[in-house]
Amino acid sequence: MARSGEAVRRNDPELYETLADQWWHRRGAFAMLHWLAAARAGLVPPAPRPGAVLVDLGCGGGLLAPHLSGYRHVGVDRSASALRTAAAHGVEPVLADVGAVPLPDGCADCVVAGEILEHVTDLPAAVGEACRLLRPGGVLVLDALAATARCRWVAIGLGERLPGIAPRGTHDPALLVDRRALVELAAARGVELRLRGMRPSVRDLLGWWGGRTEDVRMVPCASTAVLFQGVGCKRG
Question: What is the pTM for the complete model shown?
Answer without folding.
Answer: 0.93
